[in-house]
Design goal:
There is one protein chain. The protein is α+β, with helices and mostly antiparallel strands and 462 residues long. It is 27% helix and 26% strand. The strands form four sheets. Strands 5-8-9-13-12-11-10 form a seven-stranded mixed beta sheet. The chain has a four-stranded antiparallel beta sheet with strand order 1-2-3-4. Helix 4 (79-94) packs across helix 8, helix 4 packs across helix 10 (323-331) and helix 12 crosses helix 13 (439-457).
Length: 462
């Protein structure tokens, strides 16, 4: 007997043997039957044509899997597709070969299922880095996850011989729920590699690498702690001249992209930062509506990454940008959930016929909010800051209520001085994007969330 749950092209499968079936029929233990038939803990997942055994790391949900294959960044006239095309067109124009053809190739439909090695190890992300935690990523199992950034494909593409490319696609991160955060969003990631001959075409006497550098690392796969990569001057292997020339080219190109998107008078600034996979690293911020907003991150690629990909005589830069953030700024889109709406009133406002002249979003209607609080006691051995992750609760809410939840905030946490039990209170704001919700249906949905919380987390509703 095989129980299967299909989710938009993905399938959750449960295998039950004949012996187990006979035991279920003969047994009066309803709990055992529940364990064997519940789709919440399948034995394997079938995603994008691959089959993956589940284990203790599995935390991806059917709701999240339902986003696979939607490809909003490829949907013509969609704001995300407009952003993708404008970025691609800019790089096509910024870099051309001697024949006038674009240097950059574009990969916008790569499989979002990647290995832990691709998403973390290849990018030199330390084993204790917060981004690896189950509370931050959607794991399929211990070895596979839905990519947390399009950077995960860097080594794969560089190993294939590419030195100028853009990767565009959806990424998946467990996060809070509000108007600017969604568990699935879209990124554009770029890499440019150059050799000594290209970088020092006018100064052939200069070198990419220090004379004191042996040309190889003791162990190019060894991941250093963050403290070893904070030097904003350069990496030990590179000459200062090489780093400064690459930095100049990169910043010139990215400021050009920013002005292309936001206009030639946009105010901007560079801020030093840290990324495990680039050194030195920067964020580019723009001044928008009286605030400085970060729009992209970039830096000189760690040479260890290039060595893993079989490239030893090049230096490169990389940058990454979120498409939703750009679109929300450019089009005045107030809520990130709108990008997933199929409402014609939203989609009809945008067109790719004229990429340079796009209208500001006009709200179709303002449907009222409904706000309910949910408080519960955690199990005796669990505390708010040790053992309970709000992201687990957010995922449960998404699975039960979907996108009608506009925002969730942890408004109170309390530890009883006598019993030692911990309590939390979440404020949940409900608002449908396309119609008015009644308080009755909100109350019913709120009850479903409460019931699911009791079942999933063994909590006690207050």
């Amino acid at each position: 007997m095989l129980l299967t749950l299909r989710v938009h092209g993905s399938r959750l499968c449960l295998g039950i043997t004949g012996q187990q079936r006979r035991r279920l029929l003969a047994s009066s233990a309803a709990e055992e039957a529940k364990k064997l038939t519940t789709p919440q803990q399948p034995l394997q997942l079938e995603i994008n044509g691959g089959t993956y055994a589940t284990d203790s790391w599995t935390n991806v949900t059917p709701k999240i899997l339902s986003h696979l294959g939607l490809n909003k960044h490829m949907q013509r006239d969609h704001p995300l597709s407009i952003m993708r095309q404008r970025i691609v067109n800019y790089f096509y124009g910024a870099y051309r070969n001697q024949r006038g053809n674009p240097l950059f190739s574009v990969y916008d439909q790569l499989n979002p299922v990647v290995t832990v090695q691709q998403n973390f190890d290849n990018l030199l992300i330390p084993s204790d880095h917060v981004s690896r935690q189950k509370s931050d990523c959607y794991y399929i199992n211990r070895e596979h996850l839905l990519r947390a950034h399009t950077t995960a494909h860097q080594v794969q593409l560089i190993s294939g011989g590419l030195d100028n490319f853009l990767v565009v696609g959806e990424v998946y991160r467990r996060d809070e729920i509000d108007s600017t955060h969604y568990p699935v969003f879209h990124q554009a990631d770029a890499v440019r590699l150059v050799t000594k001959d290209k970088l020092f075409e006018r100064n052939p006497g200069l070198e990419l690498f220090e004379e004191t550098w042996s040309g190889s690392l003791a162990d190019p796969t060894r991941i250093l702690s963050s403290s070893k990569c904070m030097d904003q001057t350069k990496q030990p292997c590179h000459t200062l001249e090489a780093v400064k020339l690459m930095e100049h080219e990169m910043k010139h190109v990215l400021v050009g992209l920013t002005k292309e998107l936001f206009g030639p008078r946009i105010k901007y600034r560079w801020v030093d930062t840290y990324f495990p996979f680039t050194q030195p690293s920067w964020e580019l911020e723009i001044y928008f509506k009286d605030n400085w907003l970060e729009v992209l991150g970039c830096g000189i690629m760690r040479h260890e990454i290039l060595q893993q990909a079989g490239v030893h005589q090049s230096i490169g830069y990389a940058f990454g940008v979120g498409l939703e953030r750009l679109a929300m700024i450019l089009f005045d889109i107030p809520d990130i959930r709108l990008f997933w709406s199929n409402d014609s009133g939203f989609l009809s406002q945008f067109s790719e016929q004229d990429l340079q002249n796009q209208p500001k979003y006009k709200a179709i209607s303002h449907y009222p909010q409904c706000t309910n609080d949910l408080s519960f006691w955690l199990p005796p051995d669990v505390e708010v800051d040790a053992g309970f992750s709000p992201n687990d609760f957010y995922d449960l809410v998404r699975s039960v209520a979907g996108d009608v939840v506009e925002q969730i905030r942890l408004v109170d946490k309390f530890k009883h001085p006598k019993t030692g039990k911990s309590s939390v209170c979440f404020r949940i704001v409900y608002r449908h994007m396309e119609r008015t919700m009644t308080q009755t249906e909100v109350n019913e949905m709120h009850k479903q969330i409460a019931d699911a919380s009791v079942e999933s987390f063994n909590v006690q509703i207050r």
